[in-house]
Write a sequence for this structure.
């Protein structure tokens, strides 16, 4: 009879009723958790966008194998090597085609105010007879680069450079001047098309031009390239081919599979740069703040309801049952706080993406990661808060 009574009581949604009892306090708790959720979304979203922005370009290269100078840390800090080594790889029957890629940095003079210069402008030189880069706007605009000093401009550049895109869309051309660092002179170029890449913490905008225009602007021999992209024939074993190329090429040429290179770049920016370290510590701090906020909320709720918990204990509830109620309350608050936090974060992501040009996008894995982290934070916070339940003694409370 007593066991049946206990089972019936356990079917009562006590955790939900407690949250409904003091609506203003519950609302304040939900807002506090939503704040923690937004913090987590900001840190994870910014961290992911920071890393993704650096692998977006190499990810778009159409090839399975990359060749770089051994001294090159990643594609934004490259050393040149002879294109002869790239073209020599065509002797292998596994190789379908090769593409040289040229990279440099320039200053951009604002044509509206010639005292203003934009730094962080990356330039890519590519052959016009290949589809080496799979980014929107490149393939259909390659013919526009045949004339000298013609370039494609990144429509997803930093907002302070959006006037270039507007001018091109209004007039069909945007003429300006660029300067190679250290040259001391400016050269006229014309934007003759748009493509889409995006900015990052190092690059504000990107230009694409033919390899002949690149050679003229940078006064560089076409034989000195920054990256070699090798496309293999279908069905070829990638690892075996890489081993053959490593044994054939000189030791100053590094051979990467595309996937290995992307991992290398991501690890470099995640562990080898100040920004990567800062983002990781900020994420840890956000988790700690979430634990503290939720612990305070649950601790106060448990403390205020000690008499009620004592009553439940007096009528037969075990300590484990009381702990379960607190855990249920914690997870209910987690989900109730997660929903407004997710909605607000989507709006913030959209605003930041438009303001910075970086790929800050709400992705499913990000949303699920934050939900999982929120649940873990709730579990940790609840495990601390339930320590207060050890003080629950029906004899002391009702004496």
């Amino acid at each position: 009879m007593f066991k049946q009574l206990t089972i019936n009581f356990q079917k009562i949604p006590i955790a939900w009723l407690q949250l409904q009892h003091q609506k203003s306090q519950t609302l304040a708790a939900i807002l506090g958790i939503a704040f923690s959720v937004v913090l987590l979304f900001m840190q994870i979203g910014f961290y992911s966008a920071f890393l993704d922005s650096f692998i977006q370009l190499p990810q778009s290269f159409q090839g399975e194998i990359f060749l770089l100078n051994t001294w090159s840390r990643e594609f934004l800090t490259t050393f040149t090597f002879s294109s002869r080594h790239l073209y020599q790889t065509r002797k292998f029957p596994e190789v379908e085609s090769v593409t040289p890629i040229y990279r440099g940095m320039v200053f951009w003079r604002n044509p509206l105010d010639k005292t203003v210069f934009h730094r962080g402008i990356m330039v890519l030189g590519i052959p016009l007879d290949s589809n080496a880069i799979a980014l929107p706007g490149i393939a259909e605009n390659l013919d526009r680069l045949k004339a000298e000093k013609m370039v494609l401009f990144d429509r997803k550049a930093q907002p302070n450079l959006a006037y270039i895109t507007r001018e091109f869309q209004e007039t069909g051309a945007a003429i300006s001047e660029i300067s190679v660092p250290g040259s001391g002179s400016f050269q006229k170029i014309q934007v003759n098309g748009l493509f889409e890449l995006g900015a990052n913490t190092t690059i504000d905008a990107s230009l694409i031009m033919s390899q002949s225009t690149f050679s003229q602007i940078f006064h560089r021999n076409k034989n000195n390239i920054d990256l070699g992209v090798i496309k293999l024939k279908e069905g070829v074993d990638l690892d075996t081919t890489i081993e053959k190329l490593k044994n054939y090429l000189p030791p100053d040429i590094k051979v990467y599979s595309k996937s290995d290179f992307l991992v290398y770049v991501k690890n470099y920016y995640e562990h080898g740069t100040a920004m990567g370290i800062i983002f990781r510590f900020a994420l840890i701090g956000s988790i700690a703040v979430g634990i503290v906020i939720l612990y305070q909320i649950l601790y106060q709720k448990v403390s205020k309801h000690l008499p009620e918990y004592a009553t439940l204990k007096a009528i037969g509830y075990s300590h484990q049952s009381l702990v379960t109620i607190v855990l249920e309350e914690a997870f209910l608050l987690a989900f109730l706080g997660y929903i407004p936090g997710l909605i607000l974060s989507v709006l913030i992501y959209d605003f930041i993406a438009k303001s910075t040009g970086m790929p800050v996008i709400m992705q499913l894995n990000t949303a699920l990661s934050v939900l999982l982290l929120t649940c873990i934070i709730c579990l940790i916070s609840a495990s601390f808060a339930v320590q207060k339940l050890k003080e629950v003694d029906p004899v002391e409370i009702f004496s």
About this structure: DSSP finds 13 helices and eleven strands in the chain. The chain has two domains: 2-54+274-398, 71-250. Residues 244 and 376 are 48 Å apart (CA to CA). Residues 2-54+274-398 form one domain.
